[in-house]
Structures are given as C-alpha cells and as structure tokens.
Design goal:
The complex is a heterodimer of chains A (about 350) and B (about 425).
Chain A: E1 6-9, H1 16-21, E2 25-28, H2 49-59, E3 73-77, H3 80-92, E4 98-102, H4 109-130, H5 136-157, H6 162-173, E5 193-199, H7 207-214, E6 216-222, H8 241-254, H9 264-278, E7 282-288, H10 292-308, E8 312-317, H11 328-337
Parallel strand pairs in A: 1-2, 1-3, 3-4, 5-6, 5-7, 7-8
Chain B: H1 3-10, H2 23-34, H3 43-60, E1 66-69, H4 75-79, E2 84-86, H5 88-97, H6 101-110, H7 119-129, E3 138-142, H8 148-160, E4 164-167, H9 175-196, H10 200-228, H11 237-240, H12 244-249, H13 254-270, E5 278-283, H14 292-299, E6 302-307, H15 322-331, H16 339-352, E7 357-363, H17 367-382, E8 387-392, H18 402-416
Parallel strand pairs in B: 1-2, 1-3, 3-4, 5-6, 5-7, 7-8
Helix pairs in contact in B: 2-3, 3-13, 5-7, 6-7, 7-8, 9-15, 10-13, 14-18, 16-17
The chains are: A alpha/beta (about 350), B alpha/beta (about 425).
C-alpha cells in the first residue's frame, strides 16, 4: 500500500467497495483521543470528541493514533459533526482528495434514488482522481471481497466480547481489504452477565474495558465502530453500474441504522429484538458527548426499554475516557441488579 | 424586583396549558397587541405581530390542521396547502424572551435530554411534555440547518402520536436531485391538503397564491436590503434579527408580503441617520432574553448593520413549477452543506454592508454554527474583517455571563476604533 493509495474514512456508511474498486485502500481513522485539545484551533470544544480526535491526530503532521498518514479522505454527510470534520479537513488539506458523500436520512425509495446517484457521482470523482476506469465487474468483485471480509470478521469475533471484540472490529476497519488484522479475539464471552452495548463510537481502552472488568458479557456490540458495520450484507446485484449502485444504496440504507436515520422507531424496535434474541439481561447505552443523534435518541430508547421491562444504564464517554475507572462501581451495581 | 420579573412571577409563571386554549386569553392578547400601549418601532412589526398572534391562536384553537416545521422548511408549502405552520424553534425564542425557558429546559432534562443538546430544542420539548404547545397534525423538517430539528421532531411525533417526515435536501444541487426533493414536497402538500379537507384544484389555486405572495415579499425584501446598505440606516440588526420568524414562518402569506412592503416604505421615508458608527455584522442568533449586550454596543457607538439569517438567499419562485423552485430555494441556502457556503455568504454580506467587524455568537449545543465558527472567522479575516467569537446560549439565560461578555465586547470594539 502506498500513501497515495490510502484514503481515510470515518463513518460506517462509507461505501468501501466503491473505494476498493477505484484501486484505493480505505482505512478507517480513529484519531488520537489523548490529544483532543490539539483540535481547539480548528473546532469548538462542544463538538463530537471523535471528530476532534481525528483532527487532533493530523494537527502536528504525524497522524498519531492512526496507522495511515495519508490526508486523502472520504467523509459522509451523516451528521453535523462529520460535516464539520469535512470542512476543517478540507480547509487544512486543500491539495488532497477530500470528498463529502451525501447520505439521506430516509430509507424509502426517494432515499435510495438520492444515494444511488450519490454513489455514481463518487465513482466519477474517483475516476478523475485515480485516472482509472471503474466498471461493473470491478465493483462487483470489490463488493464480493468486502462481503467475504464481513463474514471473516463475524467468524473471528464469534465467542468474543467486550474490548477484545471492539479492537477486532476496529482492526478490520483500519487495515487494507486484503489483510486480516493480527488482533486476536478474546474477552469474557461465557460466564459474565449478558448485556447489549449500544451507542455511537467508543474507545476500546475506555468504557468497554470497564464493562469487561465489572464482569459484563457484551453479547451485542451495537456501535458504529463495532458490529454495526458488519451487521448485514451490502452485496449488490445488477448488470451495470447504475443497477449495482441502486442495489448498493438499498443495502446501506437497510443496515442496522444509526440514530441519525429518519425512522428512529426502527432503532428502538431492533434493540428490543436484539435483547430478546441474544438473551441480554440489560442494555448499556454509552455514547460520546456532543453527538446529537444519540443525545436525542436516548430518551426514546429509555422509554421503550422501560415499557418492555428491560433494565438500562446510561454512561457517557469523552472518547479519552480517563475518568472511567470511577464508573466501575456503577457498572458493577447495575450488573448485580440484573 | 424589576417590573419584568414581577410580571413574570405574577402572571407568566401561572400560565397553564389550558390558558392557551381559551378564546378569552387570545382576545386579551389581541386587544393588548392592538392597544396604543403597544407601540412597535416599525409599522411592519404590527403586521407581523398580528399575523403570528392570529396563526398561533388558530393553532391552539385548532381552526385548521397544524404543521410543525423547522427553520428551512418553506412555509409557502404549508400555507399553500391550507394548514397552519408552527415553528417550535421560534416558539423557544418567545419562551426565552419571556424568561420562562429554564423551567421547560429542566423538564426536558428530567425526560433524559442531555444538557449538551441545543437549548432551543430542549426548551421546545419541555414545553411539549408539559402540554404547552399546539398539538401538531403533522411534523415536517428538512435535514438542515442542523441535526436537532429532525431528531427532536421525531420524539415529538411519538409524543403526540402523529406522523413525522424528514425531507432530504440533496447536496449536489443538480436538477435531477432537486426533482426528487420536489416530489417529496409535493407528497407533503398532498398530505396537508387531505388534512385540510381541500381538493387538488383548491390546492393548486392556494399554492399559486402562496407563490405569488412569496415573490412579492422577496421583491420588497430586496428593497429593504438596498436601504440597509446605506450609511447608518435606521433599522438596527438587533431588531431586524427578530425578522427571522417572518422570513421562516410567513413567506407565502399576505402578511409576509405586507411586512416587507411596509418596512421598505418606512425605511425609504425615514432615510438614514448619518454615518460615523462602527458597522458590525452579527452571526448566528442573539440571546433572546437579554438586552445588555446590545446596550453595550450602542454605548460604544456601534451598530449591527446586517445579521446572518435575515437576508434573501433565493431567486423568485416559478409559478409553473412551484415545488421545483421551492426545492431550489432550500437547496441553495447557505446553511445547506459545507461551512464554505456559509463563509461565502457571510463574506459577501460583510463586503456589501461594509462592516468594520463581526461578532459570532456561539450558541451552546449548536454544532452547525459553533462547528463552523473557526472557518467563518478565517474567511472573514482573510478579507480584513476582524471577528469576535463569544460563547453563550440563545435560550437558557443561566448560561449567560453578561459581565464577562461585556468586557470582551468592549475590548473588541476598542480594537476597531
């Protein structure tokens, strides 16, 4: 992999198969949670810490916290935070390939049409950037490789829980498509108190480790850097690029939804189903500060889980999670109650 | 205790949800608004006040279907479909200016809404939870300018058990994408016509009328803008900022047109007060509950000559293709998409209105505005406009530090002399 071919990505809705088909190496950036203040000159402090960590990691030109130092990046217009990260990135790296992919909130026919057209525009932009033609065959092959990789993750992650599972998921997202990450699965699956962990994006060294230490067995890692990106297939069907992009758009919109999607009821329904299906005895709702989709999602989920009699614990993360040791007692008390 | 606090404690704090649903209350409000005691600064303000009192009364008394919508959703569609538009974000500003926001913000907190979220929406949701807002029949939001409206509307829709729809505004601006948005707008209009019990023919006629009013308002608005560009026009930005509600909530109505027509005429009649002041631009919105910051500006001989949200940003609507042109109106707004667009809009305003400096009010929890503040600041500094960014909260007065704010403001104004 050369630096020129590497392209950073940030949101679980990024169509990696399209980037692969363009001959690029998409690698997810997780930023540098330990140096959030380094982003102060570019973004207000009341912005998502993941976004700030990603910016912080490139403020000194070293790319701390991320393996890749390339500044090429594809952003998804999924939330205010991501849009602002795109703005700051584009302003800082005007000479690099920086693309903002629009993402509808609606999972209906109009949403599919808009997203399919957006995928086609991305293809054209990538052809300009790489000088390489992307045809239906290369996209189909790239999608197949992505599907195999998704299944490989699920296979490797089977039986593992908590921080180890999250590290594995992140490894699968931040290594080249033809490389299986070295991180071994592990964790405490079997023997702990089964819980479902839901939220946006967490640092495996922070809150998730506290759950492990407290004796929780995370049976579902519903996080955007966890299982969500691997939860369902996006393998497209179609004879030409238009057909494949339409199918791909459907696949992405039908995925287990982020709280930013229009049909918020579906997310609460899915969570209840998942709790019933996995035998989780409670839900841990852990989110990064300043993430609006999850700040507004929580009261609805709380209400729904109460109605279903499912215990819930809310935890908050600043991504660096220096304080989380103090949460151990709270988590232990919650698990005892279960 | 001051008069305002006294009135608040005696009367406002005792308001109940039932009060707003009583005809007597609205008759009293209407009488007070029309009385000689209420002397608005501009004739146009009387028109907008009367419009909003009537629309809000009709919404509470359920005289037509009520549709909640957010700042960038075109009111022309709602008015043109026989429904009453209700803008909760503006309701939050009214609640804040009455000094009642903390109570409702705390209520939303009890429901689980984090204090890291926008206080406009926490205030609105607190009001909704307490039964203080007019019940919607439908909630419509576009996915800009921020994430908060589609998300908080979704919660409110569940609370009231009514449908909620978010319209995706495409970034590309390409006609084929705009047509997809226009189709969605047309579907919304059909749903509203059905709620209002109107047929398609009546709907077309009403929509044509709304488009015509909107275009007339736009022409008058441009006259207002030309007047405001002159040296020290007598309309101050702190007052003009209130026009954000007119711009969002009354386009497509006769009164919206009348407001801008009267304002343009009165500005032309009054002329200008003369130059010699520090000309400033205000970015984002103001703290609705406090006047002190603007008094400080006046003391230092500074005026707000323009403000971010109250300028015309679209072309006249095409009566032959109303939905497509409304789609273009929304998609072309500077708050849609990357902050570069916003920075370009603000740089253009700064140049057109020849400002000496600009103030960015960082409303807590506003990711779109605070998030773009650094980029906007850099863009303005590049064209030689110094920028002061101040942290505060437009709705929650408990987050307002007037002393600290005034000190920074004074230092900034000194630097502009």
């Amino acid at each position: 992999m050369s630096e020129e071919n590497a392209v950073g990505w940030f949101c679980a809705y990024t169509p990696l198969e399209i980037l692969d088909a363009a001959g690029l190496t998409p690698l997810r950036r997780f930023g540098d949670p330990a140096r959030l203040e380094a982003a102060d000159a570019l973004l207000h402090q009341a912005i998502c810490p993941y976004v700030r960590a990603c910016l912080a990691s490139v403020t000194d030109g070293e790319g701390a916290g991320d393996a890749v130092v390339s500044r090429h990046a594809v952003f998804v217009n999924s939330c205010d935070g991501m849009r602002r990260l795109h703005d700051a990135w584009r302003a800082r790296f005007p000479e690099h390939f920086v693309h903002l992919l629009d993402l509808p909130r609606n999972q209906d026919r109009a949403g599919e049409r808009l997203l399919a057209r957006e995928f086609l525009r991305l293809l054209a932009t990538l052809e300009d950037f790489t000088g390489r033609t992307i045809d239906a065959r290369s996209l189909r092959e790239a999608a197949l490789r992505r599907e195999e990789r998704r299944l490989a993750y699920l296979e490797r992650a089977r039986g593992s829980s908590g921080a180890a599972r999250l590290r594995l998921a992140m490894g699968f997202q931040s290594t080249p498509a033809d490389e299986i990450p070295g991180t071994e699965a592990g964790g405490t699956r079997g023997g702990g108190v089964p819980v479902l962990l839901t939220g946006n994006l967490l640092n495996p060294e922070g809150l998730v480790s506290v759950l492990d230490a407290a004796g929780a067995e995370v049976v579902c890692l519903d996080l955007c850097n966890g299982d969500r990106a691997f939860s369902s297939s996006t393998l497209p069907a179609g004879d030409d690029l238009e057909g494949l992009c339409a199918s791909l758009a459907r696949g992405y919109l039908e995925r287990r939804p982020c709280a930013r999607m229009a049909d918020a009821r579906r997310r609460a329904d899915d969570l209840v189903k998942e709790v019933r299906g996995t035998g989780a005895r409670g839900v841990i709702y852990a989110g990064l500060k300043f993430c609006d989709p999850y700040l507004y999602d929580f009261p609805r989920v709380q209400k729904r889980l109460r109605e279903e009699g499912i215990p819930l614990l809310r935890l908050e993360s600043d991504y660096a999670d220096g304080h989380v040791g103090q949460l151990l007692t709270r988590v232990e008390a919650f698990l005892e109650m279960l | 205790m001051g008069l305002v606090e006294d009135i608040r404690d005696r009367y406002l704090d005792r308001l109940s949800p039932a009060t707003f649903r009583s005809r007597l209350f609205w008759r009293t409000v209407d009488t007070l608004a029309r009385s000689p005691l209420n002397r608005p600064q501009w004739k146009a303000d009387r028109v907008s006040l009367s419009y909003f009192i009537r629309a809000t009364r009709d919404a509470y008394l359920r005289r037509a279907p009520v549709v909640w919508s957010n700042l960038l959703f075109p009111s022309e569609i709602i008015i043109g479909s026989g429904c009453i538009p209700f803008y909760p974000e503006m309701a939050a500003a009214v609640v804040a200016s009455a000094g009642l926001a903390p109570r409702f913000i705390d209520r939303a907190g009890e429901e689980g809404f984090s204090s890291d979220a926008c206080s406009y929406h926490r205030c609105v949701l607190g009001c909704a939870l307490e039964g203080f807002l007019p019940e919607p029949d439908l909630l419509l939001a576009v996915n800009y300018p921020c994430d908060s409206a589609p998300l908080s509307f979704s919660f409110a829709a569940d609370l009231y058990g009514v449908p909620h729809r978010v319209l995706d505004v495409p970034l590309s601006g390409e006609e084929e994408d705009l047509e997809i948005l226009a189709e969605q707008m047309e579907e919304c209009a059909a749903a509203m016509l059905s709620l209002a019990g109107m047929d398609a023919g009546e709907g077309r006629k009403k929509m044509a009328e709304a488009v015509s009013f909107s275009n007339l308002a736009l022409r008058a608005m441009r006259r207002v803008e030309e007047m405001r560009k002159r040296d020290d026009c007598t309309l101050d930005g702190k007052d003009a900022m209130g026009g954000v509600s007119v711009l969002a909530g009354s386009m497509g109505s006769r009164e919206g047109t009348e407001y801008y027509r009267l304002l343009a005429e009165e500005l032309e009649e009054r002329g200008c007060a003369g130059g010699g002041t520090i000309r400033l631009m205000w970015m984002h919105l103001k703290p609705w509950y406090a006047q002190g910051i603007f008094d400080a500006l006046e003391r230092h001989g500074a005026r707000l000559v323009c403000e971010e949200y109250t300028h015309a940003t679209w072309e006249e609507l095409d009566p032959e293709r109303p939905f497509l042109s409304l789609a273009a109106k929304v998609a072309g707004h500077f708050l849609v998409g990357p902050a570069e667009r916003r920075a370009r809009h603000l740089a253009r305003l700064a140049r057109d209105y020849r400002v000496h400096g600009a103030i960015h009010y960082n409303h807590w929890g506003c990711r779109q505005s605070c998030g773009g503040a650094m980029l906007v600041k850099a863009a303005l500094q590049e064209i030689g406009v110094p920028v002061l960014t101040i942290d505060g909260d437009c709705v929650d007065e408990r987050e307002y530090q007037e002393g600290q704010l005034s000190t920074r403001l004074e230092a900034f104004l000194e630097s502009l002399r």
